[in-house]
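Quick one, T. Sequence first:
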Amino acid sequence: MTTIKGEFRKSAAGDSFLDKTFVNPAKKRSYKSQFNAIYTYRSRELKKRVLKLATSKWADANINGKKPKFVHKVLDVPFLEPVFIIGTTLADMKYKPNVLKEVELSVQGHFKELEELTTGSGIVRNKIDDLRKSSYSDPKTDRLWLEDESGRILLTGDHLLDKILVTGLVIGVLGMEIESGIFHVVDIIYPEAAPQKEILKSSEHKGKLLLCSGLNYNGTVSDLAKYELLKNWILGELGDDRVSNIVEMMVVGNSVDILTEKQIAKSESVKYTEDFVSNYDKDAVKYIDDYFYDILHSIPISILPGTHDVVEAGLPKQPIHHSLFHKSSQRANFKRLTDPSFYDINGLRILTSAGENINDILKYIIPNINVTEDNIDNCISTDSRLKVIESSLLWQIVAPTAPDTLWCYPFDDRDPFTLVETPHIYIVGNQPNFETSIVELKRKNGEVITVRIIAVPEFSETNSCVLLDLESLQCELVRFDY
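Structure tokens:
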């Protein structure tokens, strides 16, 4: 227990051993494997779960008076015969990065062509064209393929228009081949949800979890008031009774920010040959270490790394090194987690992400096709992220676009991003707004499991954090105005 204003705070009940799902020790890594091993594992794990629901859902389906049959390979699909097939999606998009092409042009010295490929220089665009490029998508040319070990087939149909579909999903589609190599889709099904552990409730395990994301402190920050307000509020110095129920603080990525003046622009001619230059800011890290150390006297802190933190670029990001938290690491109630991370607290199983996986998925679907020049500046900042986060649970993949457009380690024996268990809560940090919902996932036996979804806003932009009640799973936004 910790004290606040002379009173005892309850401590959270958690697992004494941190989850190992996303742990990837440096000493055991090997970069000899190809990324196809990840897709092979993902397909093997999820294909059988898709088939479970597909055979049940489409058992009584009728297309043009015929009952559809399951075809094991996409290249064996009969012409104009109703069937359903299962495979991995591949989104072919005009502005999606092509790393192999970039490397080829760089090695060959075609730097002008490389600049046009990566930046689009020399091409006249309006604002909407530029925004389309930032999101990979050009609705006029986007294509979605379904592939397996035998080959690939192009998916078409209006049923695809209202679905979020990106690279790396394992799905089942019902329909028929209307032209050679073109499959018209009339229905889609996702994998069966993985089992969910029973919530172990106890009267002793009540309390609130404080969720903070995107502190983004750096040495140029002149306005420290919001950071000090947050700390003083947690320590109970602002007279808010809610803080007495806080049992832990979770920092969901991006504790520090990069000093932009230290960034060194890299020319295309050395992009793939020169070592990256670190933008490490020792003053920012020292401030955050001191900041957390003060809070740790009151409540435990668990921290995930984000894209701005001093960690490796690829997923899953490993815990921020303890040497960067010289003071905080001396305390037993300071826990350094991976990104993503599974975390146990008060009988709940929480899946947490710093948001990089969701932000990459958004590049496949944002902006809205109906965006106009008048509202283009606000279309991304006001866009809801809930549907994307919910979809990732329906897909049963935390980061489906890794390794295609999101860096990750080339695992050769597993895909840690494929869910083999469903969490009770899914927290995503570094989002533009606070949002929350409950998504229902169905299993073949008729069981419906629910997951509380929470999008945590960046503190540096919104001056806001989120309080999660660990008993009712209700959420509350806490804003610090000054």
